[in-house]
Design brief:
With about 375 residues, this protein is an alpha+beta fold. It has two domains: about 150 residues, no CATH class; about 160 residues, no CATH class. The strands form two sheets. Strands 3, 4, 5, 6, 7, 8, 9, 10 and 11 form a nine-stranded mixed beta sheet that branches. It has a two-stranded antiparallel ribbon with strand order 1-2. Strand 3 and strand 4 form a beta hairpin. Helix 1 packs antiparallel against helix 2, helix 5 runs antiparallel to helix 6 and helix 9 packs across helix 10. It starts with 8 loop residues before the first strand and ends with a strand.
């Protein structure tokens, strides 16, 4: 029996609600880079990993900016133009996957749209003329301006797409061994969860040619990793599959960062302790939210040799698995660190209520003057 995922979707009602939604996300995204920096200071992330993650956060922020332009005049021009933004109201709080697919399609046609539309300077002059002559809001011109800004954003920025193909960063050679070390990183916007995830893999390469320049291995490795960029897959499944398919690529560590869900008293339908926490903290606009941030890691604890032919063998990784994970079941990871990012007021309510499920969750609290405080 198939599950209708659209039952969890919600179309934001009009321009005002859409602007409130994107303003909330702009505040959240503005603090996530600080969370990555604090995680580095606390030894939870390596410096280079944090820099990679911050790059994806910047791309995700640009994606939300582009979508905010696209839906800026939602419901203002007519009942159907432009379309309303659809978000996952139940288990994500983020725009639905189809929004990013449509954005990718629009990006392919961005140059044509920009060539055939009036410039922002011309549109501004037209709006002034309309206001002076017609004594009314230049709604249609405002819509044209929002779409111009949308296509400019698609054409001129690094964005977070539904699929963000793997890249390789060389980390040096291993002394005494004919091996190179790389960090591979990629990201995806999961179609089932409507959430972004960032992947980082430390790989040792025993191949003859540098991996990023190897026309035989690198395209296959990229395709393999993107095909496995599914939030529902355990890390051990992803790492083991890559290890088995590439005899001269040895994944020593794999890390996945889940961004979200985003919980908001105004926009989402959360359950459990957070429902009461956000309801109690919802007095001041913009402070009724919390964002989950989860980092899964799996690393190799040893290696074995496996025969791959009559006269050949390959190194295989043996991964450390946490047998005492969620409810005693195997998590498919060596370690899972769960965190939550939230403003000061919801944090105070959360600490006062002290629900059992949040006692082992690290809290990043947005204090005054833009400070981010960490409580383990």
């Amino acid at each position: 029996m198939k599950t209708d995922l659209t039952l969890d979707h919600k179309a934001l009602e009009g321009a005002y609600q859409t602007r409130r939604y994107f303003a909330k996300f702009a505040r959240i995204m503005g603090h996530l880079e600080k969370v990555a920096e604090i995680s580095t200071d606390e030894g939870l992330l390596k410096r280079k990993e944090a820099e990679i993650i911050k790059g994806y956060l910047a791309a995700l922020s640009s994606t939300f900016t582009a979508l905010s332009f696209k839906h800026l005049m939602a419901g203002r021009v007519s009942s159907t133009l432009p379309s309303n933004l659809n978000i996952d109201k139940q288990d994500s709080g983020f725009p639905i996957y189809q929004e990013l697919l449509q954005m990718a399609n629009d990006a392919l046609q961005a140059a044509r749209h920009l060539e055939t539309s009036l410039s922002t300077e011309w549109l501004k002059k037209d709006m002034v003329r309309h206001i002076l002559n017609e004594h009314s809001a230049p709604t249609r011109l405002q819509y044209a301006m929002s779409q111009r800004l949308y296509y400019e954003a698609l054409a001129g920025r690094d964005l977070f797409w539904a699929q963000n193909d793997p890249r390789a960063i060389w980390k040096g050679a291993i002394k005494g061994r004919e091996r190179q070390r790389y960090t591979l990183h990629w990201a995806s916007y999961d179609s089932q969860t409507n959430l972004p995830a960032i992947y980082l893999m430390d790989v040792e390469d025993s191949g003859r040619e540098a991996l990023p320049k190897d026309e035989n291995r690198w395209p296959r490795a990229q395709a393999h990793l993107m095909a496995q960029a599914i939030s529902g897959l355990k890390l051990v499944t992803i790492a083991t599959g890559f290890d088995q398919d590439f005899d001269d690529l040895h994944p020593r560590k794999l890390r996945r960062v889940h961004l979200g869900p985003m919980y908001s008293h105004h926009f989402t339908e959360q359950s459990g302790p957070l429902r009461e926490v956000l309801a109690e903290a919802s007095g001041e606009e913009g402070l009724d939210w919390a964002l989950s941030w989860t980092v899964e890691t799996i690393w190799s604890k040893s290696v074995t040799e496996e025969k791959t032919g009559w006269f050949s063998s390959a190194e295989r990784q043996v991964y450390k698995l946490d047998k005492m994970g969620s409810k005693g079941g195997e998590t498919g990871a060596s370690e899972i660190r769960r965190s939550i990012i939230l403003p000061e007021r919801p944090y105070q309510v959360l600490e006062h209520r002290n629900p059992k499920g949040f006692r082992d969750v690290r809290k990043y609290v947005l204090g005054k003057n833009g400070r981010v405080l960490s409580y383990g």
